[in-house]
Amino acid sequence: MNRPTPRLFKTRLLLAGAALLAIGAGPAPKGPAADLILTNARIYTVETGQPWAEAVAVKDGKILAVGSAAEIGKRKGATTRVVDLGGRFVMPAFGDAHAHPIFGGMSHARCSLHAGKTLDDYRRIIADCVAKTPGTGTIFGSGWNQSLFPPKGIPDKDLLDSVSKDRALIFESDGHTLWVNSKALELAKITRDTPDPKNGTIDRDASGEPVGALEESAMALVEPLIPPPTAKDLEGAITYTVTLFNSLGITSWHDASLEWDKGGTSKALDAYQAVKDRGALTAHTVMDLHWNNDRGLDQMPDIVKLSARAREIGLTANGVKFFIDGVIPQQTAAMLAPYEGTDVKGATQITLDALSAAVAQLDARNMQSHFHAIGDAGVRQALDAVERARKGGGAHDTRPMISHMNVIDPADQPRFARLDVTAIFQPLWACNEAYMDLAIERIGPKRAAYIYPSGSVLRFGGRLAYGADWSVASANPMEGIEVALTRVAPEGDRPPLGPSERVTLAQALRAYTLNVAYVNHLDKQTGSLAPGKSADIIVLDRNLFETPVRQIHSTKVLLTLFQGREVFGKLQPLAR
Known about the structure:
The protein is of the alpha/beta class. The protein contains 17 helices and 24 strands.
C-alpha cells in the first residue's frame, strides 16, 4: 500500500474541506449570483409572455431573472440578499407620460392653493403668504380650481383685492389662466384700452374693464412682475418632485415642456444636470423643449443645440412640445363646431402649415413631436400634421404623442392606430365632477359623448399612455387607475362619465408602465419586469387584481426600487 506524500495528503485534506463547505452552503448558483432576490410574492410583470411570477433576481441594478421561487432561488449566492415579501403584490414601477416637475415643485414651494377647497380657503392661504413675505414684491402662486368661479370658471380680482391692494398678487391655475389683483393690472399697465394680444384674452366685464383673469398669451403681460426662480429654486423643485414621485411608485417621467432661452441655453436643464450630478435624480427623465409659436423654423437650430447639450451631460431632451389650443371652460380650446349657444369655435395657436413644417423637420432629425390639444379641432390638426410629415419624409421611429384630448371626434379616433400616434390621457380627469360640468355646458351633450374616449382609441388598435399633468392634478397613479376603470371620481357618487370608455386593469397598468417607457424610447430599458431591464420595482400593500375597483385609490406603495436601490421605503420581510 502506497502512502501519500505529505504534499498530496495536504491537498486531499483541502479538497475534502472544500467539499464539506460546499455541501453546507448548498449548490452553487445557476448562472450569475444575484445581489438581491425578492421572493414569495405575487409579481405582475406586464410582459405578455410571462405575466405572472413568484420571485425576481436583481444584479448590478438590473433584473437578472424572473420566475418561480424555486427557479430564482438557484440565483442565490453567498452574498445574495433574500427578502421574503410574504405574498405581497409586486409590479414594475410606474411612469408618468406628462408631468411638469419644475412647475409642480415650484408651485408647492411658493404660495400653494392646492389644499384649498373654497374661496375662503384661498383668502386665508393668500393672506398667510402675504404675512410671511415681508416687503412690497409680488406674491406668486398656483393651484386654484376653476370650478369655484361659476358660471364660466373665470376668477375676478375682488377676492385678491380684499387681501391686498398694495402689492401684486398673481396665481396660476393650469398653465392657461392667471388670476391677478388690481395692483398687478396697474403695474402691468393693463386697462380697458389694452388690446387682447394674439392668441390671448384679457377677460373683461360688461363695461370693458379687466376683471382680473388673463388667458393664454395674455399671461405674458404680467410676466415681468413674477420673481424669476433662482438656480437653487429650480433644483429644489426637481428634488421635491423626485421625492414625491418615488413615494408614489414613479421612477420615470416625461417633462412635458422645458423652458429655454434664445441661443440654446436653459436654466432648467442646468438644474436637472446639478440634481443628476449629485445622484438625486432617481428617475428616468425625458424632456420636451417648448416650441415658441411666435417664432418659426428659425428656432430649430437652438432646439437642436440644446438637445445635443442634454445628450452630452447624460440627459435626454429629444422632444418638442407644441401648444395647439387652450382649454374648454374659457372657450380657448379649438373646436370643429361652435361652443353651445355661441358662434365661437376657439382657435388654434399655430397654423397647420407651420406645425406640419416643424414636425417634418423634427422627423428628419429623428426627434419626437408632442402636442397639447384639447378641443376636437386641435386634436385633428395634430393628427393632420403627423400625417403630412409621414407622407413627406417617410417613416421614422419618432413616436409622436398627443396629450389631453378632452374631445376626439369619432372620425379621428381610428387615426391614432393608423398613424402610430400615442394618446396621452390624464385618467383622473375622466369623471363627472365640477370641472367637467363646465366643459359639458360649453360643448353640449352630443360632443360630451366623445370626452376622453380612451376605450375607443384602444378598440381601434391605438396605444394609451397615462400622465397626470402634475401639478395640475394629483400625480398618484392609484387614483388614475381607479378612474380609468370606473369613470367615477375616487369616493365620488356621481354617475360614470361615458362608461363605455372604461378600460381594463391590465390596460391601465400597461398605460402607466410599459407604454410610458415606449413614448420615452425606454421600453427596452424599463417599463416591465424582464431580464436585462432596469430593476425599477414597486411593492404594494394589496393585490390590485383582487381589490374592489372603488378601493384601488386607497392602495399604498410600500417600497420603490430604482435601478435596484431603495428610493422609498425599506427592503425588509413583509408578512401579510
